[in-house]
Specification:
Length: about 650
């Protein structure tokens, strides 16, 4: 039996476990990346491991999320990351160099290799045939130290692409179509592999748009073959030597198969407040809009920017619309300036922002009250934009640019033939904003600088023998990490200050939660299905831990979040019968007798409800995960191993 692309990479990196779907496997990780909003924690954890130098082939720290610097906090964190990386053998991508995934794709990603990043959109690298996975900061720290990365052996979903994209239909429309088919839960436990004739018609940045937003499917990763198109991209980046061909075997076996005909795709939009709430743009046309934001790690490549510039050239942004454009990297920004397209964007009235995440993570550019915002980003979760009642639609750069001119939702295909856009075959390469680490000899002299905003990381406790506590919060399906631990310009500066962050925990759903949890000394959270979808932020586990949360019971969990819960000693349990969700209410006192014993060896724990009814909870954990939970989290567990 042959192998798929992801299976080939897994096989080459398998450290332990069997390649049987659903079983835990351990992988060797070749490269890591961090960004600044999760990086501080990751490096604090790396330092706690007392390892002098990273053991990966390449590790890079990017500064791209917290670039507003409204106070000293972010700048202090940046300085910490700059000095700690210099000391320990990690490259440092300075603020201004661009968004981690875009820069990594351009300068470092390699077909056939493994990458984990403390950011959920790390699968962007799948556009070049690399197996990229999002992970919590602690998992990245362990991988930097040469440790194994554990995942559940994924099933493989085959996504066959046929045909060729019509004019004014982009890669974003492809992934929105896939989201429409599979939903935000459809990729859980799977790698989505793109194959077929249609693949050859897509450039690497287009492929990367698709693999990037595979994160919104809940997928472990998404990947494209490495072919002549990949080779041409690497050549344009001056890295032809990094090319290796990678194709699935002809007799590869897939767990599910779908086909998307590129030729018949229409411009699509993900409507509020979920990336899978997809409609055709034509069904929304005429709706008045207030804001357009173009950029983010999903759609900020040279192709995206040139497409937008060609549409805006000689036009003026509608008076009722505010348009922001953030190029994805310094490379893209420089090339836009060199070819003159930047002048077309400025002349049309676009507000050019620095190459960073910016509005995508609510760092400024919040829409007006109840404003309609069209964004080329990947997430439109409730309140993520910074305006609680904003209506955020995710669209392609083509739809965004055309609508910015008309002031209403506009289907770009109604304009007929699209302008021709030529992406240069050689890119402008200048890595002067990527600092190399100190040499082994000089590393000892590097002083790590720590600002006052960096507070200690909370550490978990071993679980109680019997658990008796309150359901401190009951929430519904598809709770995102933006609900659990919101981001945005007010909160992001405190990513290395858990006590301060805790004041905002779950406030999107329930303003009283932080106070209540503190008063009650913590308790248990009850969630619906796909609990913890979205970001890799381990703060969504660390902060509840700080507030005393001991366990989360849900109908099902998202992959990265469940790993983060375990890493910090919060016990994830699923309802054996999802209908039992109705039997438990917020504020109920519950009991789980034999809690610690169940974690140690049982697959089931029994919860006694307020009225004395028994509810069965599943603990589907590997032996390693059980040991971590019994130790009260991975930091304690690692100490015990020494
Ligand atoms: C996001 O897009 O939600 C983020 C901000 O990039 C997060 C990381 C974080 O919360 O710092 C992610 O995707 O993992
Ligand atoms: Fe940054 Fe947005 Fe990409 Fe997250 S999704 S890495 S916030 S650009």
């Amino acid at each position: 039996m042959g192998y798929t692309i992801a299976q080939k990479i897994i096989k080459n990196h398998l450290v332990c476990g069997e390649m049987v779907v659903g079983k835990e496997i351990g992988l060797k990780i070749d490269q890591t990346l961090t960004q600044d909003a999760t990086g501080t924690m990751a490096y604090l954890q790396f330092e706690a491991m007392n390892i002098d130098r990273v053991k990966t082939e390449l590790s890079v720290a990017y500064i791209d999320h917290n670039t507003l610097q409204a106070g000293f906090e972010n700048a202090d964190d940046h300085r910490y990351i700059q000095t700690v990386t210099k000391k320990h053998g990690i490259r440092f991508s300075r603020p201004g160099n661009g968004i981690c995934h875009q820069v990594h794709l351009e300068r470092f990603s390699k077909p056939g290799k493994t990458l984990i990043g403390s950011d959920s959109h790390t699968p962007t690298a799948g556009g070049i045939g690399m197996l990229g996975m999002g992970a919590g900061g602690l998992d990245v720290a362990v991988a930097m130290g040469g440790g194994t990365y554990y995942i559940t052996m994924p099933k493989i979903i085959k996504m066959e692409l046929t045909g060729k994209l019509p004019d004014y239909v982009g890669a974003k429309d492809v992934i929105l179509e896939v989201l429409r088919i599979l939903s935000v839960k459809g990729g859980v436990g799977a790698v989505v592999e793109y194959v077929g004739e249609g693949v050859k018609t897509l450039s690497v940045p287009q492929r990367a748009t698709i693999t990037n937003m595979g994160a919104e499917l809940g997928a472990t990763s998404s990947i494209f073959p490495s072919d002549s198109v990949t080779k041409a991209f690497l050549k344009a980046e001056g890295r032809e030597e990094d090319f290796v061909e990678l194709q699935p075997d002809a007799d590869a076996v897939y767990d599910a198969e779908y086909t998307v005909d590129l030729s018949s795709l229409k411009p699509l939009a993900a409507c509020p407040h979920s990336p899978d709430n997809v409609k055709e743009v034509s069904a929304l046309s005429g709706m008045k809009i207030n804001q357009v934001c173009i950029g983010s790690c999903t759609n900020s490549s040279m192709l995206d920017m040139l497409t937008v510039a060609a549409i805006l050239k000689g036009k003026t942004v509608h008076p009722d619309v505010s348009l922001s454009i953030s190029p994805g990297s310094k490379q893209v920004y420089t090339m836009l300036a060199e070819c003159g397209a930047l002048a077309d964007l400025i002349a049309a009235g676009a507000r050019i922002l620095e190459c960073a995440c910016g509005p995508c993570i609510g760092m400024g550019f919040s829409p007006q009250s109840a404003g309609v915002s069209l964004r080329t980003f990947n997430r439109n979760f409730l309140a993520r934009s910074g305006t609680a009642d904003a209506q955020v639609y995710l669209v392609s750069p083509e739809t965004a640019a055309v609508s910015a001119i008309t002031g209403v939702f506009t289907d770009p295909t109604t304009l007929g033939v699209a302008p021709k856009v030529e992406v240069p075959s050689v890119f402008t390469i200048n890595d002067n904003l990527i600092e190399l680490p100190a040499s082994v000899e000089d590393a000892a002299n590097v002083v790590v600088e720590r600002g006052p905003n960096i507070k200690p990381i909370p550490v978990g406790k071993a679980p109680e023998k019997d658990l008796a506590c309150e359901i401190v919060l009951k929430v519904g399906d598809d709770i995102t990490t933006d609900h659990i631990m919101p981001a945005g310009s007010k909160i992001l500066p405190y990513r290395s200050n858990v006590p301060k962050l805790s004041e905002y925990c779950f406030t999107v759903c329930d303003k009283e939660f932080p106070e209540r949890a503190k008063k009650k000394g913590g308790g248990v959270i009850l969630g619906g299905s796909n609990y913890g979808q979205g970001s890799s932020r381990e703060h969504a586990a660390l902060v509840p831990l700080y507030l005393g949360v001991k366990a989360v019971i849900a109908k099902s969990f998202a992959r990265i979040h469940v790993a983060n819960l375990i890493n910090f000693g919060i016990v994830p349990m699923t309802l054996e019968n999802p209908e039992d969700y109705e039997k438990i209410a917020q504020g109920d006192e519950i009991r789980i007798d034999g809690f610690a014993e169940a974690i140690a060896g049982e697959n089931v724990a029994v919860l006694t409800t307020k009225s004395g009814e028994k509810v069965r909870l599943n603990l589907s954990l590997s032996a390693r995960q059980r040991e971590i939970l019994l130790a009260g989290g991975r930091l304690n567990y690692t100490k015990l191993q020494k």
